[in-house]
Design a protein that fits this description.
Keywords: Disulfide bond, Glycoprotein, Glycosyltransferase, Golgi apparatus, Lipid metabolism, Membrane, Signal-anchor, Transferase, Transmembrane, Transmembrane helix. It is a single-pass type II membrane protein. By secondary structure, the protein is an alpha/beta fold. The protein has 13 helices and nine strands. Helix 10 links the parallel strand 6 and strand 7. The radius of gyration is 20 Å and the shape is globular.
Length: about 325
């Protein structure tokens, strides 16, 4: 393929149609050799990516029926009235009674609507981002999602950018790094300040342990007179997203935050670009990479099914539903 390569081939050239067909022939990740997947993915990079409007719209309409992010991504006063007995996502036998104090923390309704943003970047924290020089391209998006308070300091900005519209916070980070916000709260506030005007999104109703610590984030920001919005995932939305991806072959104790954000972005944005998503210990050229762009701490074994998620993303890229960036960026 590369003998006479002199620039990206047109999306619908015969060669690119063949390369896309070769990837779509790989149906089941467990039956696919990793080297074969990598080779076919690498070959596909010679083709320009274009959004396939028909495929993308069909996929978005499926998500609209199963999950409906524009109505249910966040817990709002509209979808969760005062007095609701809200079921937890995991502790399904437990409920949280929506009292006045918590109800007032919810936005009146979802602040985002269907296809509101033209181009979105969902930034994962994968080691594939290291030395990618993708910061400029990420920051050029109309809306940027980030997962779990990743570092965006000067050391990383060339690769990951700084623009952030929504950043998720896993309550385990608050518990482990910030002592559940029971003592000094300023270190946590200082970390959030780095994300400037970004809204903070937490899974307060994932299980009973998460609720108090998530609500405390709102109190901390109020104490420091921050204007940041704090939102809580709606537990039913998370259940529906997990169920949808289970049907697509993602069998895990829990889908990743990244996959949840990608699912939401596909409804809220016209065009979705993924950066830092690559759930393998080596890049497509077979060179070992760190788990995150900032460290090499691995998740709990068997908790997530990242390779399976990436396998789905590769197929979606190939169909023109979203774009996965794994090469270095040459953004001007």
């Amino acid at each position: 393929y590369f003998e006479f390569y002199d620039g990206p081939l047109e999306y619908n050239s015969t060669k690119c149609l063949d390369l896309r067909r070769e990837i779509m022939e790989l149906k089941v990740l467990s039956l696919t050799k990793q080297t074969e997947l990598f080779e076919r993915w690498k070959n596909l990079q010679i083709c320009k990516w274009e959004m396939n409007i028909t495929e993308a719209n069909f996929f978005k309409s499926t998500l609209s029926r199963c999950c409906n992010a524009p109505a249910f991504l966040f817990t709002t006063q509209k979808n969760t009235p005062l007095g609701t007995e809200l079921k937890y996502e995991v502790d399904t036998s437990r409920i949280f009674h929506i009292n006045n104090e918590v109800f007032r923390m919810f936005p009146k309704e979802m602040p985002y609507y269907r296809s509101q943003f033209k181009k979105c970047a969902v930034v994962g924290n994968g080691g594939i981002l290291k030395n990618s020089q993708c910061g400029g391209e990420i920051d050029s998006a109309d809306f940027v999602f980030r997962c779990n308070l990743p570092p965006i300091s000067k050391r990383y900005v060339a690769d990951v950018g700084v623009k952030t519209n929504i950043v998720t916070v896993n309550p385990s980070i608050i518990t482990e790094r910030f002592q559940k916000l029971e003592k000094w709260r300023k270190p946590f506030y200082d970390v959030l300040k780095v994300y400037e005007n970004a809204s903070v999104l937490l899974p307060a109703f994932y299980n009973t342990h998460n609720t108090d610590v998530s609500i405390r984030v709102r109190y901390v920001l109020d104490d420091f007179e921050s204007k940041k919005a704090v939102y809580f995932f709606h537990p039913q939305y998370l259940i529906n997203v997990s169920r949808y991806w289970l049907n697509q072959g993602v069998r895990a104790k829990r889908v990743t935050t990244g996959l949840i954000l990608v699912t939401a972005a596909l409804e809220l944005c016209e065009e979705v670009h993924l950066f830092g998503f690559w759930g393998f210990p080596m890049n497509p050229s077979g060179i070992f990479i760190t788990h995150h762009y900032y460290d090499n701490i691995k998740p709990r074994p068997g908790f997530h099914a990242m390779p399976s998620e990436i396998f789905n993303f590769i197929h979606m890229h190939t169909k023109g539903i979203l774009r996965v960036h794994t090469d270095a960026c040459n953004f001007l």
